[in-house]
């Protein structure tokens, strides 16, 4: 949960820095400097989100290895969205600046606080991105909090859950039945047991090597 909270903090911080920089930039200074600072800060946010995205994937994969298949599916769905949204945001900002630079060879005269200036459009893009990211991250944190509060046993330890995954066949089905969800659950279960078998095999090989070493000594 600390990773999601850190992501939310970084998103809000980046938005506050952008708004303060644009609105309170000295009038006598170069007008396009806030735009460049906004782009630099967004690039820094992208690198931080990229790193934290890998940390989230590590935690989510740990959930899957421990048998929490439903939680893994939900956390992965929400946890992977911030990186895609930030990547989309920085792409949109790059397109915006490219278009303005193509239309206006010199950006300095158009870097004002008017509605259609590149500065205001870029700030609006980051603001929309921040609102969307905050909403998704809050949903993610709520799900993490509920998961930690319940402390339910792993899904694979439940006979009913495993039976639900394996007892249904994929053939003729009534309209409206979610076959894709069934297939995904079965695939998650198979993947979990495959990983569990690999872990046990490594442990057996380690114990076998240890016993051989003891017998030689």
From TrEMBL:
The chain crosses the membrane at residues 34-56, 81-103, 115-142. It is found in: Membrane. Its main location: membrane. It is a multi-pass membrane protein. Keywords: Membrane, Transmembrane, Transmembrane helix. GO terms for cellular component: late endosome; lysosomal membrane. InterPro entries: TMEM192. Pfam families: TMEM192. Belongs to the TMEM192 family. This is Transmembrane protein 192. It comes from Homalodisca liturata.
């Amino acid at each position: 949960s600390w990773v999601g909270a850190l992501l939310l903090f970084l998103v809000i911080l980046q938005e506050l820095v952008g708004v303060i920089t644009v609105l309170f930039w000295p009038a006598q200074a170069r007008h396009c400097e806030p735009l460049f600072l906004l782009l630099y800060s967004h690039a820094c946010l992208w690198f931080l989100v990229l790193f934290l995205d890998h940390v989230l994937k590590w935690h989510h994969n740990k959930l899957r290895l421990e048998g929490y298949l439903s939680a893994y599916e939900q956390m992965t769905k929400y946890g992977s969205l911030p990186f895609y949204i930030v990547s989309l945001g920085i792409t949109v900002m790059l397109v915006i600046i490219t278009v303005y630079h193509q239309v206006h060879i010199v950006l300095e005269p158009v870097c004002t606080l008017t509605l259609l200036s590149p500065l205001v459009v870029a700030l609006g893009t980051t603001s929309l991105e921040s609102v969307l990211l905050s909403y998704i991250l809050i949903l993610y944190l709520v799900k993490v909090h509920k998961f930690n509060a319940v402390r339910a046993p792993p899904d694979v330890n439940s006979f009913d859950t495993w039976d639900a995954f394996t007892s249904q066949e994929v053939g003729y089905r009534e309209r409206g039945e979610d076959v894709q969800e069934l297939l995904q659950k079965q695939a998650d279960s198979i993947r979990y047991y495959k990983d569990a078998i690999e872990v046990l095999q490594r442990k057996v090989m380690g114990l076998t090597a240890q016993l051989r070493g003891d017998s030689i000594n």
